[in-house]
Amino acid sequence: MSERVELAHNAAGRKVPSVVNGRPQIPYLGVGKYQVRGRKAAPPLRSNKDYPDNGNKRLPDLTTALKKGGLRDGMVISNHHHLRDGDRVALMALEAAAKLGIRDLTWFPSASFPSQKSAIDLMQSGVIHHIEGSMNGPLGDYCSQGKMRGTGVLRSHGGRWQAIQDGEVHIDIAIIAAPTADAFGNADGSHGKSACGSLGFALADSMYADTVIVVTDNLVPFPCIPWQIQGNNVDYVVEVDSIGDPAKIVSGTTQITRSPNRLRIAELVARFMREAGIMRNGFSFQAGAGGIALAFVDYLRRMMKEDGVKARFVRGGSTRYLVEMLHEGLTDYILDGQTFDLDAVKSIASDPRHVPTSPFTSYNYHGKGNFASMVDAVVLGATEVDVNFNGNVVTHSDGRLLHGIGGWQNCLFAKCTILAVPSFRDRIPVIVDEVTTLTGPGELIDVVVTERGIAINPQRQDLLDAVKGSNLPVRSIQEIKAEVEQICGGRPAKPKLGDRPVAVVKWVDGRVLDTVWQVG
Amino acid sequence: MSGAKEKRTAQAAEAGHWGKDVRSDLHVSLEPSDSGGLEITLESRVSAYYGTSILAQTRQVLETLGVKHARVAIHDEGALPFVISSRIETAVKRAGLGSGKKAMPEKVALPASSARDRLRRSRLYLPGSEPKYFINASLHQPDAIILDLEDSVHHAEKDAARILVRNALRAVDFGDCERMLRINQLPLGLEDLVELIPEQPDLVLVPKVEHPGQIAEVDRMIGELKARQDINRAIWLMPIIESALGIENAFAIVAASPNVVALTIGLEDYTADLGVARTVDGRESLYARSRIVNASRAAGVQAIDSVFSDVADTEALRQWGENSRALGFEGMGCIHPSQIPVVYAAFSPSPAEVEKAEKIVAAFEEAQQRGLGVVSLGSKMIDPPVVQRAQKLVTRAKATKQ
Known about the structure:
The complex is a heterodimer. Chain A is α/β, with parallel strands linked by helices.
């Protein structure tokens, strides 16, 4: 069971534990208030004399690689999630560890997926002590119910890089699933039967882990071109029949929502960007692959054509829609963090204007700047937004774990952050008095677009002025909230949360922003 | 799903829907008992937030309906309060329980009554048994919404839809939309009127009209119900012609009541009656549609076109709409909100048309001021009907600029 710890109030007024999994924590101090010092963590020094001159680092199987990598009880094992729900490598590694009789591992994936639910068995049998990484579906429920031995730690993609780089998480063994690799360990995600596009989430693991194992089902003769993972960081290469289920790695086609409400929200977002003057020559934007985001891209693209406007770059979550914009000359570049469908994978493999990025270039907060803050507008979702524009993406309104943070927190630094959300789902209001779990501070959230109107953060007088006189339905967030409560038959009851922390939400600087509490 | 409505003795009954793919609805199953009061069980995807509220509402609705003893099981998928009351009332009715009283949700303010000649370019169909579409319908800004009791509602669900639509007319804010109601074919449609006229819809669509007598009958019934309820505001009529015989009687049908404000056609049924296929350019119905336009004009009411059923093909819809406007129609039906802006564009005069009309109106006003009998624009003399048409177009263009 997780340790009994002191709780402290952080700068956002949230109660957070001062120790998590035995490590002392600093509570969140505010946006830009924590000053990091010191030097980056680094992997141990190695010498060429210990690696084959012919560059052949192949080992017969993963178990051998784990043994040679010195796998021991209590180690930190990492995986990336570019293969999404189709991934087979993470469980392959954890099950191999189980067979070796290993216990008390910390599993540190960049995200977990429902198909990895048998990790629950490995937690119950003691192989895994706890997971640090996003948890949803069955794993989310397991953690929410307080069944995990340690405390979950939820980080953004940038926050995961920051934690590794700052030495807050030390990866003992990184196991990197690679759709293509050579025997030296150069690896890439854009080719092969299990192609997934960018491998950016695995980059930090390859640079900072003590031992790096590349697992591939498409071993090519040296050199693997292009390479996103450098073989110079890799210890061992293991060839397997299959690293994942291609059907679940990328979707064949991404479909735009047909829901009238979601389409309306998407159209309002695009109209807002046009009316506010954000959509202008040379601008940039980011949108994910969710239903509203895809539809938004389609509306914006039409408006860009109508107005003869071209973007300098777009950031994705890349899909067919961004690829089409690239082909139509509506953007010069796609800077790609994750590649979601077949068209996007094909594009990143063949078009030099479609560039893979990593959390280092895009999201890391402890660096010399990043791309996310340079983007003119980003369109994000949320499960809840409160009247102070604070957002929640990690839990349901009842406090159960729902999503990982993904790049969400990192994207809040864009010049204009837009949350595109329905004002209520079923009967559950999305606009609330106070978010259940604070994931993003309201001072960074500029606009909330719902089907019932657009609320602009009063701190953004410039945006309020920019759309003055337009025919957009701009309203106060309180007004929308009141209307929704009227429709839903009153304010919802506050869900009863336990008093035991089951996970913490880290801010982009590694400080503790909020706590996820055990639910009934 | 039981649609039985026997009233003899109390029996177990159910109403509504639940399941993984159901949203904003609920399922009520009800078992009468002789004693023991009300035993209510609730499973709800929103129970953490509204569980207590749903239980309290259930109890209150059952008490209002006069049900004292029953076992009630509710599976809720996030239904709004007006839906919850509807489903419970339906189950109680189907079970043959209760005192015959109704459980009316609180009313939102009734919008201003609708003008005879208001814009009716788009009307959005809302299936009367699908509550999830009601609440946000007006956000898509159709000129009207139609709560449909007819073709979109399964026979076994007619009783449920009637109650649900009644509660929607009371509890849902449809904004600036005209609130239209499509009743069932007569005589069932007359029962719909009894339940729904007290909620004062703005307009009643009467389906499958073939004779003026049918409109007269509906009109008389509405008149009686209005008098009984002391309703003063207008409740307009829009007959739907859906057969060859109806087309032959079109003018007599429009002229059957002064409350008829528009006439429309149902092309699926009409083409079926002719035994021809419906095509994208609609040449098989050109005659019928022109008859509709002519009869409407002759009677001084609006001619409104049918719906376009391929939701995915917006280009074909645009062409259909433009053609329809050229024939003399003033609007058409929409079966998906995405059709609304396309229909608006098709039925709006082009900027060039508006500009020309504005010039004519300005010339007319100037001539009036100067006391000139003859209006001229440049070297052209403008006839009075041209001025009238221009005035209409300018007014319409102003009205359509939202």
